[in-house]
Amino acid sequence: MDIERILRQTRSVAIVGVSDDPMRPSHGVWQYLKAASDYELYLVNPTVSEIDGDKVYPSLAELPAVPDMVDVFRRREHLHSVLTETIAVGAKTLWLQQGLWDDEVARDGAAAGLQVVMDRCLKVDHARLLG
Q1: Which residue ranges traverse the bilayer (predicted)?
Q2: Helix, strand or coil for residue 65?
């Protein structure tokens, strides 16, 4: 899997499970990408309507555009439903944050034509390869 190629080809990222708590990793990744990347960012969390003035969408299906990448900050038991949503909206890449790994999700995602990245931090890889 060519991580640098994926990062360079990505134009938009949906961050699923983003938190309004500045102490949460998802918040830090969003803040970093907002400051250091040219990505169009979409925030997804059904329990929050806005973070620092940015709109938060309740689901991938409600985004105003199709994201190239879906970056996932959800517990393992929610990964299959996020995969289903990711396939349904037509994203190209499913990125499971550091600590998230599910071989079945990877297999099903690849079978549906997705690039699946697991157990990696988007912020760390972006800073290392493109920062």
Answers
A1: none
A2: coil
